[in-house]
Protein backbone atom coordinates (compact mmCIF):
# COMPACT_ATOMS: atom_id res chain seq x y z
CA UNK A 1 0.00 0.00 0.00
CA UNK A 2 1.29 3.45 -0.88
CA UNK A 3 2.35 5.83 1.94
CA UNK A 4 -0.17 8.47 0.86
CA UNK A 5 -2.97 5.94 1.05
CA UNK A 6 -1.97 4.91 4.57
CA UNK A 7 -1.58 8.53 5.68
CA UNK A 8 -4.97 9.44 4.23
CA UNK A 9 -6.79 6.54 5.85
CA UNK A 10 -5.21 7.07 9.25
CA UNK A 11 -5.71 10.86 9.15
CA UNK A 12 -9.34 10.65 8.06
CA UNK A 13 -10.09 8.07 10.74
CA UNK A 14 -8.46 10.16 13.45
CA UNK A 15 -10.20 13.36 12.30
CA UNK A 16 -13.59 11.63 12.47
CA UNK A 17 -12.85 10.34 15.97
CA UNK A 18 -11.68 13.77 17.10
CA UNK A 19 -14.85 15.33 15.70
CA UNK A 20 -16.87 13.36 18.27
CA UNK A 21 -15.58 15.56 21.13
CA UNK A 22 -16.80 18.96 19.79
CA UNK A 23 -20.10 17.30 18.79
CA UNK A 24 -20.61 16.09 22.36
CA UNK A 25 -19.83 19.60 23.66
CA UNK A 26 -22.31 21.00 21.13
CA UNK A 27 -25.08 18.67 22.36
CA UNK A 28 -24.43 19.59 26.01
CA UNK A 29 -24.45 23.30 25.17
CA UNK A 30 -27.68 22.84 23.23
CA UNK A 31 -29.33 21.29 26.31
CA UNK A 32 -28.19 24.23 28.42
CA UNK A 33 -29.14 26.77 25.73
CA UNK A 34 -25.62 28.24 25.49
CA UNK A 35 -25.38 29.41 21.86
CA UNK A 36 -21.83 30.80 22.13
CA UNK A 37 -20.44 27.41 23.16
CA UNK A 38 -22.57 25.75 20.47
CA UNK A 39 -21.05 28.01 17.77
CA UNK A 40 -17.52 27.42 19.03
CA UNK A 41 -18.04 23.61 19.13
CA UNK A 42 -19.49 23.63 15.60
CA UNK A 43 -16.41 25.55 14.41
CA UNK A 44 -14.13 22.86 15.83
CA UNK A 45 -16.32 20.09 14.37
CA UNK A 46 -16.25 21.84 10.99
CA UNK A 47 -12.45 22.07 11.10
CA UNK A 48 -12.15 18.35 11.83
CA UNK A 49 -14.61 17.55 9.01
CA UNK A 50 -12.50 19.66 6.61
CA UNK A 51 -9.34 17.84 7.70
CA UNK A 52 -11.08 14.50 7.15
CA UNK A 53 -12.04 15.64 3.63
CA UNK A 54 -8.44 16.66 2.91
CA UNK A 55 -7.24 13.26 4.09
CA UNK A 56 -9.87 11.59 1.88
CA UNK A 57 -8.41 13.41 -1.13
CA UNK A 58 -4.92 12.32 -0.09
CA UNK A 59 -6.18 8.74 0.11
CA UNK A 60 -7.64 8.96 -3.40
CA UNK A 61 -4.33 10.26 -4.77
CA UNK A 62 -2.47 7.44 -3.04
CA UNK A 63 -4.88 4.85 -4.41
CA UNK A 64 -4.42 6.23 -7.94
CA UNK A 65 -0.63 5.99 -7.53
CA UNK A 66 -1.01 2.42 -6.23
CA UNK A 67 -3.10 1.48 -9.24
CA UNK A 68 -0.59 3.11 -11.59
CA UNK A 69 2.32 1.24 -9.98
CA UNK A 70 0.38 -2.03 -10.14
CA UNK A 71 -0.33 -1.50 -13.87
CA UNK A 72 3.34 -0.68 -14.52
CA UNK A 73 4.45 -3.77 -12.60
CA UNK A 74 1.99 -5.97 -14.50
CA UNK A 75 3.20 -4.54 -17.81
CA UNK A 76 6.83 -5.14 -16.83
CA UNK A 77 6.09 -8.73 -15.84
CA UNK A 78 4.18 -9.29 -19.07
CA UNK A 79 7.06 -7.89 -21.13
CA UNK A 80 9.52 -10.13 -19.27
CA UNK A 81 7.33 -13.17 -19.91
CA UNK A 82 7.09 -12.29 -23.61
CA UNK A 83 10.86 -11.81 -23.81
CA UNK A 84 11.48 -15.19 -22.14
CA UNK A 85 9.05 -16.92 -24.51
CA UNK A 86 10.81 -15.36 -27.50
CA UNK A 87 14.19 -16.54 -26.21
CA UNK A 88 12.84 -20.05 -25.68
CA UNK A 89 11.31 -20.08 -29.15
CA UNK A 90 14.60 -18.91 -30.68
CA UNK A 91 16.48 -21.67 -28.84
CA UNK A 92 14.00 -24.26 -30.08
CA UNK A 93 14.30 -22.94 -33.63
CA UNK A 94 18.10 -23.20 -33.37
CA UNK A 95 17.83 -26.80 -32.16
CA UNK A 96 15.45 -27.66 -34.97
CA UNK A 97 17.74 -26.02 -37.53
CA UNK A 98 20.73 -27.95 -36.17
CA UNK A 99 18.86 -31.23 -36.39
CA UNK A 100 17.85 -30.46 -39.98
CA UNK A 101 21.41 -29.61 -41.00
CA UNK A 102 22.46 -33.21 -40.60
CA UNK A 103 25.09 -32.48 -37.97
CA UNK A 104 23.60 -35.24 -35.89
CA UNK A 105 25.04 -38.72 -35.48
CA UNK A 106 23.64 -41.60 -37.46
CA UNK A 107 23.64 -45.28 -36.65
CA UNK A 108 24.23 -47.92 -39.29
CA UNK A 109 23.95 -51.65 -38.70
CA UNK A 110 26.47 -53.85 -40.45
CA UNK A 111 25.48 -56.93 -42.40
CA UNK A 112 26.65 -59.21 -39.60
CA UNK A 113 24.52 -57.25 -37.13
CA UNK A 114 21.48 -57.53 -39.38
CA UNK A 115 22.10 -61.25 -39.70
CA UNK A 116 22.33 -61.60 -35.91
CA UNK A 117 19.06 -59.76 -35.51
CA UNK A 118 17.39 -61.97 -38.09
CA UNK A 119 18.72 -65.10 -36.42
CA UNK A 120 20.97 -65.85 -39.36
CA UNK A 121 24.38 -65.85 -37.76
CA UNK A 122 27.30 -65.79 -40.13
CA UNK A 123 30.01 -68.23 -39.29
CA UNK A 124 32.63 -65.59 -39.96
CA UNK A 125 33.01 -63.02 -37.22
CA UNK A 126 34.13 -59.77 -38.83
CA UNK A 127 34.21 -57.60 -35.73
CA UNK A 128 33.88 -58.62 -32.09
CA UNK A 129 32.02 -56.38 -29.69
CA UNK A 130 33.28 -56.82 -26.13
CA UNK A 131 34.35 -60.42 -26.91
CA UNK A 132 30.84 -61.67 -27.80
CA UNK A 133 30.57 -63.52 -31.08
CA UNK A 134 27.70 -63.19 -33.51
CA UNK A 135 26.61 -66.77 -32.74
CA UNK A 136 26.30 -66.01 -29.02
CA UNK A 137 24.29 -62.89 -29.80
CA UNK A 138 21.95 -64.88 -32.02
CA UNK A 139 21.51 -67.50 -29.26
CA UNK A 140 20.72 -64.78 -26.73
CA UNK A 141 18.04 -63.36 -28.99
CA UNK A 142 16.42 -66.80 -29.42
CA UNK A 143 16.07 -67.38 -25.66
CA UNK A 144 12.61 -68.13 -24.40
CA UNK A 145 10.95 -66.02 -21.73
CA UNK A 146 11.50 -66.99 -18.12
CA UNK A 147 9.58 -66.59 -14.89
CA UNK A 148 11.40 -65.59 -11.73
CA UNK A 149 10.39 -66.21 -8.12
CA UNK A 150 10.33 -63.61 -5.36
CA UNK A 151 13.80 -64.65 -4.28
CA UNK A 152 15.13 -63.87 -7.78
CA UNK A 153 15.71 -67.44 -8.91
CA UNK A 154 14.51 -68.67 -12.25
CA UNK A 155 11.42 -70.85 -11.80
CA UNK A 156 11.08 -73.86 -14.05
CA UNK A 157 7.73 -74.87 -15.43
CA UNK A 158 6.52 -77.71 -17.60
CA UNK A 159 5.86 -76.85 -21.20
CA UNK A 160 2.80 -79.10 -21.38
CA UNK A 161 1.12 -77.76 -18.25
CA UNK A 162 -2.34 -76.26 -18.58
CA UNK A 163 -3.12 -73.04 -16.80
CA UNK A 164 -6.58 -71.59 -16.24
CA UNK A 165 -7.48 -68.20 -14.86
CA UNK A 166 -10.86 -67.36 -13.39
CA UNK A 167 -11.88 -63.75 -13.31
Polypeptide structure, described:
The chain has 4 helices and 2 strands, in the order ααααββ. It is an all-alpha fold and 167 residues long. It has helices at residues 3-32, 35-101, 111-118, 134-141; strands spanning 147-148, 154-155. The chain has a two-stranded antiparallel ribbon with strand order 1-2. It is 68% helix and 2% strand. The protein starts with a helix and ends in a 12-residue tail after the last strand. The model is unreliable at 121-128 (pLDDT under 50).
Strand content: under 5%
Order of helices and strands: HHHHEE
As a whole number of angstroms, the C-alpha radius of gyration is 45 Å
Strand order of the largest sheet: 1-2
Coarse morphology: elongated
Mean pLDDT score:
81
Structural class, by secondary structure, is mainly alpha
What characterizes the major β-sheet? 2 strands, antiparallel
